[in-house]
Design goal:
Layout (H helix, E strand, L loop, with lengths): L7 E7 L3 E6 L1 H4 L6 E4 L2 E11 L4 E7 L2 H6 L10 E5 L19 E10 L4 E6 L2 H4 L7 E4 L2 E9 L2 E6 L1 H6 L10 E6 L1 H13 L1
Antiparallel strand pairs: 1-2, 1-6, 2-5, 3-4, 3-6, 4-5, 7-8, 7-12, 8-11, 9-10, 9-12, 10-11
Length: 198
């Protein structure tokens, strides 16, 4: 379980089925077999090695064909920045919202516009995902816990404050870029329970 509060941006070293990411902070605090949220996708560290030239860790992850097909990780390239977060512990504050790292769908960035503070990003979500989005509800975009400012059909807008733009890779997103979307799991549970009660 994660909070959607990104700890650092790692740098993709190798892309594809064996994803390798250079990470200083997160890399120092994980071991083989640990889970890490990478751009909103819960992955397992299969190898951790110190790269002495950078004094940073290279984390390796194996991506299944399903993960490559259902997330945007298949489109990352060496040199790309990715959002990284370790799982929450029972003694941490829950600063964002409960994020599982289970991507519900891949959205497309449709607009990025400056705002009074930071910017606003418009994302088009798949129909199967957008039904769970509500104004002022929580959403995870590439692993970042955000609030839906407004929703219109299959598109939604999130406000990105300067801190979020500095601390995550969302400042690199352009129109047409894919982003991983995870909706609030509570919405899915409510739908299931209400459906079964009918």
């Amino acid at each position: 379980m994660f909070t959607g509060i990104v700890e650092e941006c790692g740098l993709v070293v190798t892309a594809g089925p064996r994803l390798q990411i250079l990470a200083r902070k997160v890399g120092a605090g994980v071991a083989d077999g640990d889970s890490v949220n990478v751009n909103g996708v819960c992955l397992t560290v299969v190898n951790r090695a110190l790269r002495e030239t950078d004094e940073a860790w290279v984390l390796s992850f194996d991506l299944s064909p399903e993960t490559l097909r259902r997330t945007s990780l298949g489109s990352v390239r060496p040199g790309d920045r990715v959002n990284l977060e370790r799982p929450v512990t029972l003694i941490q504050r829950l600063g964002g919202h409960l994020v599982q790292g289970h991507v519900d769908g891949v959205g497309i960035v449709r607009r990025v516009e400056p705002a009074a503070t930071g910017c606003e990003m418009t994302v088009e979500a798949p129909a199967a995902v957008s039904r769970y989005l509500v104004d002022k509800g929580s959403v995870s975009v590439d692993g970042v816990s955000l609030t839906v400012a407004t929703r219109d059909g299959s598109t939604f807008i999130v406000a990105l404050v300067p801190y979020t733009l500095q601390a995550t890779n969302l400042d690199t997103k352009n129109v047409g870029d894919p982003v991983n979307i995870e909706v609030d799991v509570m919405a899915k549970y409510v739908e299931r329970l209400v459906g079964e009660a009918r």
